[in-house]
Amino acid sequence: MKIPIYQIDAFTKTLFGGNPAAICHLPEWLDDETLLNIAKENNLAETGYFVKKEDHFEIRWFMPYEEIDLCGHATLAAAYVIFNHIDTHLDEVTFSSKSGILKAKKEENGSITLDFPANPPQEIDIPKEVYDAFDITPLKAFAGRDLMITASSEAEIQNVTPDLFKLKGLPYLCTIITAKGEQADFVSRVFDANPEIPLEDPVTGSAHTMLVPYWANILDKTELKATQLSDRKGELQCRLENDRVFLTGYAVPYLTGELEVNSK
């Protein structure tokens, strides 16, 4: 079976910036083992898959080691592929996913706005592992699917050098560190300690479903500019409306090709 594959840099205007995602347009769903093996072979943070239905697309996301319930940058990348390669007449697309209904809208300036469910974080005691892993003094900790840690300054976020192995065993997909920004409203970095070799995620849309409700409350504003301070860097325009988070960013194509797989 030949499968179209696209690699897209998401939440950036610049090639080799933002977060790269592999996107596969499937005629129908393959078995989960094959989907996971493709993600392992791609060896990117996420591989996204979508299947066209009558009036929407089904979407799923796989890390190289497991399926996840929500991924922002791979959804932005999938929307870019649909708008530019699949249904070029569309300016809005609806996805059904494990996190419910998600939407993506093509803006006049070429950016794409994602409509995601908000996930307001709940404050918890700071885990001991956080003190062990980070060479900064954490202020507060919050939990949802991910663990979110607040710090006192953008400089602390920019310069932190964590020992991610110390975070292994915590019951969270990722660990987010965040602070009020200097140019942006807030900044963040996101780390995944679950792979065999832990890593930093360049730009994490799903993390902003926690970050945006938190910072909207702290800063008393519903429209925010966010910067993720990884080496590749990512820029997001964010908006909170009731229980939804809207994330706007750009996408840049890197690769178009074809996979050959034999599904079970």
Mean pLDDT across the residues is: 97
CATH architecture title of the largest domain: Roll
Order of helices and strands: EEHEEEHEEEEHEEHEEEHEEEE
Number of helices: 5
Q: How much helix, percentage-wise, in residues?
A: 10-25%
Main β-sheet, in a few words?
Answer: 18 strands, mixed
Summing up helix and strand content along with how strands pair, one would put the structural category as alpha+beta
Number of domains: 2
Global outline: globular
- How is the quaternary structure best described? single chain
The end-to-end span amounts to 11 Å
CATH names the topology of the largest domain as Diaminopimelate Epimerase, Chain A, domain 1
Fraction in beta strands:
35-45%
CATH top level class name of the largest domain: Alpha Beta
In short:
This protein is α+β, with helices and mostly antiparallel strands. The protein is 19% helix and 41% strand.
